Amino acid sequence: MVDVSLGLGTFLSTSKHIFESGNEINDVTVVIGNESCDLDSAVSSIIYAYFLCIRFSEEEKDRNVNNGSIIIPVLNIERKYYPLKTEVKYFLNTNNICEDSIVFRNEIDLVKLHEEKKLKLVLVDHHILPEDLQGLENSVIKVIDHRPIDKKSNWSNEVVIIEPVGSCTTLVADEIIKENKNIMTNENVALLIYGTIILDTYCFSETVKRYTDLDREIVNQCKILGKIDISEDDLFNQLKESKNDVSQLSAPQLLIKDMKTVYNIPISTLTTLAQDFLQKVEAHESIKSHCKEFNASVCIILGVDWHEDVHYRDVYVYYEDDSTDNEAPCEAQQKADFIVQHLIDYSLLDLELIKTIYSGYLFKQKDTTWTRKHVIPVVENACKYFIPQ
Hints:
Elements: H1 8-20, E1 27-32, H2 39-63, E2 69-75, H3 86-94, E3 103-104, H4 110-115, E4 119-124, E5 140-145, E6 160-162, H5 168-180, H6 187-200, H7 213-225, H8 232-244, H9 251-257, E7 259-262, E8 265-269, H10 274-277, H11 283-293, E9 298-307, E10 310-319, H12 331-345, E11 351-356, E12 360-365, H13 372-385
Parallel strand pairs: 1-2, 1-4, 2-3, 4-5, 5-6, 8-9
Antiparallel strand pairs: 7-8, 9-10, 10-12, 11-12
Helix pairs in contact: 2-5, 2-6, 3-8, 5-7, 6-7, 6-8, 9-11, 12-13
């Protein structure tokens, strides 16, 4: 087991080195976030893995054994996409976590570890395994999430913590504080949690209303235990600026920056309104290429814009149109129409059609409190019941 007394950065680099060294390892505990790899997922996986490593190191010390185990956090994207996660890269670098010390999803074979009976899997910031990992259920030892519970979820209560708080990092920190609050005296640990919750809750905005009393309590504990002196507003503005700094990203990269896939439908969240994105010269070709890259006939773009304390959202549902003028709607259009109808009928988005553009529908979202985590279950349900005509 790694010596964690040297801090968070050393834990990460040493864990990765041991994993890649080829030395005999009896079991690997992997802590992994969701496929969007936003700041909440990235920090939750890193901090919870660090916490587990400290816990197991103390257990080994008590038993005076070394059982050939290793604990590593994994960022759930390919390494080549890391530069697109601007706020993640910025905040990890600020806290002395360099890219070279991180293990990415394409650098670890979870299925092989599972087949060798070496894998212990911890899911943070999601609670449903993606399609390519569906056979790994028996390796899951813990689930921590703050999303609405998916009906497909069938984990036992012993391994699950799912609570509707503003940030998954809040639940991670809550467990740490209850068991070993000394970990929170590490300035990097406290600051990473502090900043992530502030960003996730939009700095406790009353307009967005994405926080609970527990989010606020954990942030206060971070300030006290980690002796944090940067104000919430200042750190929020820094993180917001880094997240919105997409000046070096192309239109295709913007679509991948914050994306999840549901029933083979890419759902991208932008840091600008979809309406503004669609005005880009390369927007249409970028969307078409995006669908081709992910073998999708339909994609969804969720736009978000934030000016001071005013929040704007819109939704664009696109389909690949391969029909002629004389034909009935193609299957992709039928699916897009079915999803749109579900979003109108079964969600509280309060959508207002702005216009049709390219082969897609652009809506203003009047209820701005609904985010992607609320949209996904509606899209999943639509896809489940869609039957092409």
